[in-house]
Amino acid sequence: MRLLIVEDNADLAAWLAKALRQTQYTVDIAADGLDAEHMLHLAAYSAVILDLSLPKLDGMTVLKQLRRAGNKVPVIILTANASLEGRVAGLDSGADDYLAKPFEIAELEARIRAVIRRGHDVAAPQIVVGDLVLDGKTRQFSLRGQPLQLTPREHAVLEHLIMKAGATVTKASLSEGVFGFDDVADASAIEIYVHRLRKKLEGSSIQIVTLRGLGYLLRHV
């Protein structure tokens, strides 16, 4: 899962990015509204954490233009303005959730998980595909009732696939979900991670199928 943090407070942005990366998200940071617009045009994100008080282009304008362009990425607004009027304005402009500063990282993580589930039309706290289970609260995988040991990149690929189980996922889409702008990614990296995942899923009812020229499909057999 790839997130975009739009926050001009460099210390806060760095702290958020570090905390979210530790929970196996890929994170990009934009320090102003114009950078955010540019990055949203270049990459597909699972969710956006958006401050409203931004230089160059304010957060509310970024949000309105995002929705005007038809982009439905979940957006969580972060702001020091916790007034009812401010919350209503943000939600009416297309925000999915609203969190006032200061806040606890655990609450932000819970809200991120919730808006991503809603964005994928997943209401249940668990996603189950055959022997494979993704816990929506902890974002941990288990296979046949046992914890599945994954590297952060393997986790990102498998999470992307299970969220779209039964549908084809392109290699480009996987790459966008796994690698941030600051990451150096080999062209064959996704193939390597898929190969490793297949090894770890051997003997289960789960397959990752390669659809030549199209992408990958996670399915229960």
TrEMBL record:
Q: Which residue ranges does the record assign to the Response regulatory domain?
A: 2-116
Keyword Zinc assigned to the entry: answer is no
Q: Which InterPro entries match?
A: CheY-like_superfamily, OmpR/PhoB-type_DNA-bd, Sig_transdc_resp-reg_receiver, WalR-like, WH-like_DNA-bd_sf
Domain of life of the source: Bacteria
Family matches, as Pfam families: Response_reg (PF00072), Trans_reg_C (PF00486)
User: Where would I find the OmpR/PhoB-type domain in this sequence?
Assistant: 124-220
Q: Which CDD domains match?
A: REC_OmpR_PmrA-like, trans_reg_C
A single Gene Ontology CC annotation of this entry is:
cytosol
4-aspartylphosphate is found on 51
Residues the UniProt record assigns to the DNA-binding region sit at 124-220
UniProt KW keywords: DNA-binding, Phosphoprotein, Plasmid, Transcription, Transcription regulation, Two-component regulatory system
Is the Phosphoprotein keyword given for this protein? Answer: yes
MF (Gene Ontology): phosphorelay response regulator activity; transcription cis-regulatory region binding
State the Gene Ontology BP annotations: regulation of DNA-templated transcription
Q: Which PROSITE patterns match?
A: OMPR_PHOB, RESPONSE_REGULATORY
Protein name, per record: Transcriptional regulatory protein tctD
Q: Which organism is it from?
A: Rhizobium favelukesii
Gene behind this protein: tctD
